[in-house]
Amino acid sequence: AKKIAIMGAMVEEVDPFLGTNEHEPLLKYFKKHNDVTYGNNLYHEAKYKDLDIVLGYSKIGKVNSALTAATMIEHFGCDMVLFTGVAGAISPDLKIGDLIVATQLCQHDLDITAFGHPHGYVPEGKVYVEPSRNLIRIAKSVADEKGIDLKKGVIATGDQFIADSERKEWIAKTFDADALEMEGASVAVVCDALNVPFFVLRAISDAADTDATFDFDEFLKHSSQVSSSFIMAMLEKL
Ligand code: ADE
Hints:
There is one protein chain. It is built from six helices and nine strands. It has 238 residues and is an alpha/beta fold. It has a single domain (3-235), classed as Rossmann fold, CATH 3.40.50.1580. The protein has a five-stranded mixed barrel, surrounded by five helices. Helix 2 (62-74) packs parallel to helix 5 (184-193) and helix 3 crosses helix 6. The radius of gyration is 17 Å and the shape is globular. It starts with a strand and ends with a helix. Bound molecules: adenine. Adenine binds next to strand 5, strand 8, strand 9 and helix 6.
């Protein structure tokens, strides 16, 4: 059977309505699951239809998410990684609750420009890492069927919560980025290095501006739910 990693950064992203019956947490779909702790994270092994699933959240940031992606691949044997969560909008087309799938991911805070390299680049690496085209195509078909306006674009990742229009504009113009978050590109680097198809989906929680912390807290659960329910629909097509 295919073994699929589904990961987010925060517990709210993989289990948005934890402890409530308001909506449908991802874990609800995987009623019978086996909990495994590894490397200071909790993973849930489950079955869904004929798929083996490993579900978990990494904790915030590039290092934590790289560890979780690598663990899901190397320790649990996953052959595909699906990332679900929320992001700050850069593109004015993206409103709170809108879904964006990454076509390319980059690290906006990776900087050895002092040595003449471009932003986001280190030797033997690449500025942009690209997710599986096949998974993007599957996402598009799910969106078409459900009448969802799924946006595509560049997602910029860094170990910074951006709540400042100046920094946001810098990221926009330096990387031609449409949305920003704190885990996608690090998961991308790991999956690319290990030749495992991956996919990063984000629902907008804020616009990375002076209202960002307020909006993030307000919309985290709802936007997480938008993203995770889309991932559940994608599982039907894997
Ligand atoms: N994830 C969601 N909103 C974000 C923001 N403004 N900055 C970084 N990561 C985010």
